[in-house]
């Protein structure tokens, strides 16, 4: 896709809050073929409405109006219409919607819209929790409501775990349309990782993408807030951000985060590093190799990927086979 296309494609960026989804969106927005705007927030509500309509159809109450496939097509077109105005104005062929909670709906959205793609951003959980602690500190200083998931390290851990497990469902079911980004890799080797994103989207890499601070990103709310200040939005890639957690978190907090999330983080890291190999079988090694054989067989069987998802979920839940 080297020229601007008349048919827009939807791209959804998701990840746990404070994982770097805004940074990714700003980098994407710098590309001449991508419009990356502020958070839409209501994707989950649209998916919920779709589920209600599909339920009515399954009960035979709405078959006179639409079939299951017709409904999904209309929902996909509805989402595209909702988000396309600024993209059309900027002559962009890809619409990137960045809301961290997208990760909860990716599995369904990718099933509804067969052309949509997604990016999942994964970050060292210690960096995420440290950033959440800063949000709490800002909220207290500004006398604003403290987000529930920032109130304690336990709350933060619980939220990250939920996001990561939901993201894994979408990755296992639609891995060919889901691109993984490890925040640390993006910070240390931005050009390499952005080139990989462009390959995923079938577009040419543009150097301006490596300068997120120069993006004309529409953040929706220009006022400084507990999440981002104007200074934050104008900041370019800063490797110092990778080590900030070391001075923000206590040894006890670090140990708690590692004991709770290190296994899940290793799974995501292995998916990222081994993405050109049969990574699932390597992660969930079993003595008799039965699991690896099943994974190898199911990996490219689209109709059976739901079974693969359950297999993997059970594997890292039990960890004793």
How would you describe the overall organization of this protein?
The protein contains 15 helices and 5 strands. The N and C termini lie far apart (45 Å). The protein folds into 2 domains: 266 residues, Rossmann fold (3-Layer(aba) Sandwich), CATH 3.40.50.300; 45 residues, no CATH class. The protein has a 5-stranded parallel β-sheet, with helices on both faces. The protein has 321 residues and is α/β, with parallel strands linked by helices.
Gist of the model:
With 321 residues, this protein is of the alpha/beta class. The protein has helices at residues 21-29, 43-58, 68-83, 85-89, 106-112, 125-141, 153-173, 183-188, 190-201, 230-233, 245-248, 251-273, 279-283, 290-298, 305-318, and strands at residues 9-14, 34-36, 94-98, 117-122, 178-182.
List keywords for this structure.
single chain; 5-stranded parallel β-sheet; 2 domains; disordered N terminus; 5 strands; Rossmann fold; 15 helices
Which helices and strands appear, and what pairs or packs with what?
Blueprint: E1 9-14, H1 21-29, E2 34-36, H2 43-58, H3 68-83, H4 85-89, E3 94-98, H5 106-112, E4 117-122, H6 125-141, H7 153-173, E5 178-182, H8 183-188, H9 190-201, H10 230-233, H11 245-248, H12 251-273, H13 279-283, H14 290-298, H15 305-318
Parallel strand pairs: 1-3, 1-4, 2-3, 4-5
